[in-house]
Amino acid sequence: MAYFYIVFLALLVACSGLVSSTFVWKHHNNEELPLVLEEIHEKCPNITRVYALTEPSVRNVPLYVIEFSDSPGFHQPYKPEVKYVGNIHGNEVLGRELLLGLADYLCERYLNHDRKIKTLIHTTRIHLLPAMNPDGWQLSTETGAKDYLIGRNNNHSVDLNRNFPDLDAITFELERQGINHNNHLLRDVTRLTAPVEPETRAVIRWMMAIPFVLSAALHGGDLVANYPYDESRSGAPVSEYSASPDDDTFRDLAMTYAESHADMADPQRQGCRVSNSDDSTSYNFGKQGGVTNGAAWYSLKGGMQDFSYLATNAFEVTLELGCKKYPPTEELEEEWHKNREALLAFIWKAHIGIKGIVGDDSGFIKNAIVSVVNITGPVPRPIRHDITTGDYGDYYRLLTPGHYEVTAIHPGYFPVSRVVTVPHHQTAARILNFKLEPKTSWFDDYTYGSFPYGLHDGQPRIYKRSLYEQVTNMMLEKKDTKH
Ligand SMILES: *[C@@H]1O[C@H](CO)[C@@H](O)[C@H](O)[C@H]1NC(C)=O
Ligand SMILES: *[C@@H]1O[C@H](CO)[C@@H](O)[C@H](O)[C@H]1NC(C)=O
Ligand SMILES: *[C@@H]1O[C@H](CO)[C@@H](O)[C@H](O)[C@H]1NC(C)=O
Ligand SMILES: [Zn+2]
Asked: What are the start-end ranges of the H helices in 44-145?
């Protein structure tokens, strides 16, 4: 008997070495966080990869990401890339734990052959950065996790969600001048108002290295899904609606999260600032469907959300996950149940609209421009935010249901336009490929008029290139191919 017992024990120990421990809902510290990611990777080695961004925090804590994909480490054409970023404000910690829980859930459901999760992972590349500001988390935790502000900033006392280059100012100025140069505006930055912090720099490089399509930043302190722009057109710290060219699509993205969340969109729920009875109603986002335009709430400069939209092809929203910035441990699991469907539904949104490859006879075309006119209503309305093709000539254009005229443009080729209908309830984008014909040398741009939406070479540019451009390019555009 004793012999069998010992064999049994030995087996148990051997197994527990292989089968990783189950995920526990608690506040994971900066040492535990990478261990959780590593355990998930060991459980699901074929569909995950753990990596750190190019630089650590001020206090030298690596910024870890876990990636889910059926070919971890590689972008594949027709597969949109999505990211979630948590704990940007160090004392807003729910997103950090939810992303760890989400990672464990994706792995577990995949192993259990959950068909929807398997399809999601086979068609999407998902990156989760649970903590962008581990130093702030440390300070907030060590000081009792109570204060509304302590631990918000990084260790240089900088608010990371005010530290991104202000591209709104550039796009608003271009709008005023009637110049339709409307995307990838980082190269138009002539001066930085403040040094870029290491955490911000790491995230900017990440954004530049991976062709993200959809993104959300996870915050706390209120319960609302906030969409661009965050900055008012006047730049003044006022509350005024500041619509982006993709306002309809952004509202749809934000509403998807709010409506899939247990109570974000509930009109009966209480607002977060109930103590101040005078202005409690103005902050009760439940009464407006759980969503808000950023600047309509309050205007801010240098946020990550607007930067993402104006510097890359990624559409980003900001999710305020609850009134409590640092909820107690015993509430974490309940919060997970409130947010789980919303976190998944939002990732599926990377599959709305259209996608495809722009190419010519001999292959694909990088950096082609894909522009869209909304022809759903009686009056055609150009959406003045172009998307560009990536390293495999692929593009992803999120759109809400309707009819659109889509044009692919690249210097040296004739533009090609196609009409497409975007249906309701998509779980896969409509595929719309373009084959461009090169212009022969005796044709020039003037023969066929100028490009309809791109910036023409001779057109005046108000933002002069400067030394700063070289500096920022050197700093930011050094692509790390390992990502
Ligand atoms: C990973 O893939 C290999 C080869 O396809 C397979 O044998 C193995 O069972 C997979 N492992 C897991 C945990 O899915
Ligand atoms: C920076 O980190 C050190 C060590 O954790 C801490 O003592 C200090 O208060 C932090 N400073 C700020 C501004 O967060
Ligand atoms: C296109 O126009 C229709 C009707 O005006 C609208 O419902 C839809 O949201 C618009 N799409 C986008 C992406 O703006
Ligand atoms: Zn925040």
From this structure: 94-111, 115-123, 134-142
